[in-house]
Amino acid sequence: MNAEFFAALELLEQEKGIPKEYMIQKIELALANACRKEVGPSTVIRVKMDPVKKDFRVYSQREVVPDGEVYDSGNQISYSEAKSISRRHKLGGVVETELKTKDFRRLSAALGKQMIIQAIRDAEREKQTREYEQMNGEIITALVDKVDMTNGNLILDTGTSYATLLKSEQIPGETHDVGDRIKVFVSEVKSGETRGPIVSLSRIHPYFVKRLFELQIPEIQSGTVVVKGVSREAGSRTKIAVYSNDPNVDAVSACIGEHGMRISAILEELGQEKVDIVRYSDDICEYVKNALSPAKVYSVELEGERSCRVTVASDQLSLAIGKEGQNAKLVARLTGCKIDIKA
Questions:
Q1: With the CA atoms of 241, 246, 250 and 251 taken in that order, what torsion angle do they form, in degrees rounded to the nearest 10?
Q2: Which of 2, 11, 139, 339 has an alpha carbon within 20 to 30 A of 74's alpha carbon?
Q3: What is the location of CATH 3.30.300.20 in the chain?
């Protein structure tokens, strides 16, 4: 039975990636709690599992106190009695007595089993949480396992566990079927108390586009080109500001690629969403001018610390503002600057 038990721990480590040492620690604690049901809730219990000998032993521990000062026989033993067991025992030391677990009732065995099962579940949850925490802020590829027809949510197999991509976090207008492989951004990971980690997935987060650029553009990966900011209205338009640390490398051209190959791969992932690559500048007026592209700007004047007055030709006004003010709003978010556009 013991050999089979330790073999099961080996299998658990291989199949679920839960370290055997971790499980032994958890099981020792679970068995100790179960044994207290038999010998008393205040009794100090030590369980020692030996994976080499493939056995385990249970001990009760009692403190050695002066003769005549034993007030709790379950946790204390007199000095003279301790000496009769072994001359090595000293005052303040601990005397261990092995308990015969075969005499324990079935109720305690059932409790121990239940606690071991709970320990396995806790270990699985902690493992999943650690794995997702490593993915936090990253793009992962997941398999669509189920489409909820009532609310449009997607149940995704991430390879670690199943997670939900809410309809509100999907790009407007896109559809997915069971079996599709899609990219999602892990925006937040929280440790769940009962059902494992709570993972927030998104395809509308501005950093979803940022990470797509970082994955697709070698110059960004090397640090030559830096993404300075992103503002986005998912499914419609994104503005991403880039800057080059090397005067010989043009940041915008690096992101577009030869014949538009690099940006086309990103646009394919985003569907019909438009992406404006903006040249970043420390000069806020120049930055705002670049960000208002594709509108042609006549002038930008700074009014206050973070406020600009922008002048454009009459035929460029609607383009600069955008449909329902979208272009102006995206520029304001990207630059952190209040913008007043006039013809």
A1: -20
A2: 2
A3: 205-280, 294-343
How far apart, in whole angstroms, are the C-alpha atoms of residue 75 and residue 3?
A: 32
Helix axes of 106-135 and 2-16: crossing angle, nearest 10 degrees: 20
The answer to whether the CB of 197 falls within 8 A of the CB of 179 is: no
pLDDT in tens, 25-49: 887 887 787 777 777 777 788 888 8
Assigned token pair, 282: 């420390």
> Is residue 302 within 8 Å of residue 284, measured between CB atoms?
yes
CATH for the 141-199 domain, from 3.30.540.10, 2.40.50.140, 2.40.37.10, 1.10.3720.10: 2.40.50.140
Determine the Cα–Cα distance for residues 302 and 284; give it in Å rounded to an integer: 8
Residue 251: CB atoms within 10 Å: 25
As a whole number of angstroms, the distance between CA 164 and CA 201 comes to 7
CATH code, 2-130: 3.30.1480.10
Q: CA 232, 307, 339 angle in degrees (round to 5)? A: 45
